Amino acid sequence: xxxxxxxxxxxxxxxxxxxxxxxxxxxxxxxxxxxxxxxxxxxxxxxxxxxxxxxxxxxxxxxxxxxxxxxxxxxxxxxxxxxxxxxxxxxxxxxxxxxxxxxxxxxxxxxxxxxxxxxxxxxxxxxxxxxxxxxxxxxxxxxxxxxxxxxxxxxxxxxxxxxxxxxxxxxxxxxxxxxxxxxxxxxxxxxxxxxxxxxxxxxxxxxxxxxxxxxxxxxxxxxxxxxxxxxxxxxxxxxxxxxxxxxxxxxxxxxxxxxxxxxxxxxxxxxxxxxxxxxxxxxxxxxxxxxxxxxxxxxxxxxxxxxxxxxxxxxxxxxxxxxxxxxxxxxxxxxxxxxxxxxxxxxxxxxxxxxxxxxxxxxxxxxxxxxxxxxxxxxxxxxxxxxxxxxxxxxxxxxxxx
Length: 402
Description:
Strand order of the largest sheet: 7-6-8-9-10-14-15-16
Strand content: 15-25%
Shape: elongated
Low-confidence stretches: 1-35
Mean pLDDT: 90
């Protein structure tokens, strides 16, 4: 369960073809979301990976959703209706997203919860929105998981990749680094957007510049040439725009070569499950939704992860579990406001929530913006085999120590 999670990448055309339906938000076809609330429980369809390489990636958010449902039902549910999660297994195969989404709709799903990635979660989202059912990814960071691509009924509870990268870039600058080198992994949208935002933000700071960059691939076996160019550049910080397992391989070879400059990265590196692959790693930093180690600056986050461990018998793998809980918080509040699960009315209610406070921080949407663009990033430091929070940044500004 703690194995590395990989992400696939595909074009928007592939998503549309895989969905086998009209354009996002298309008015054609019968709606599966009734105008009124159902007689029984309100079903949230869970179109997530329960097996295959992405299962660990979807595990935390799914369990977070389960905790939120339990809390809401203990308070009487939503407008007197219990919430119920029904699972479908996409088996980490984007092509199955459509099939699973359609099956969950036939089983009464009134809202769809999809995988934490645009490429993997998009097909199930399209299957839902084509039937006027709201679809939410708990933590997709790609800017493509938004209205222009997926239509007005699709949302991401994740923080936009560029927003997290902006916070990391300002953190790096505030640490005194002035010459950055970039290792770009182009295999997924998230890492491409992360590197672009880091570069533009860091380069805009006084006396700061990007002194070079290289492209890395997930299957690269040797980084000797890249390490030599990095060493010769005089850089005082490396931005690693990648994810595991490629990122672990790169880090291990970097440190083994004796290059000990600080490395900053992104929330794909959240969790400590991979640290055994880079013994004695230090001076490594990344952004996350929060710290899952009991030392987050927010008491409610620490309480959440303590409950998670008690409930499931193991610590959360990443902080993404927070967004699963937050997704259900927003869905429940919107249904309460709209007094229906009908997609268009429910979307209008979500858009009207404003800066709604969730366990993952403030979450705000608008009619043309359905991904979170401004949320606190907890910057985590890895040193001596231990991960701990060192600062919180919001909108490119430091807002809290530790």
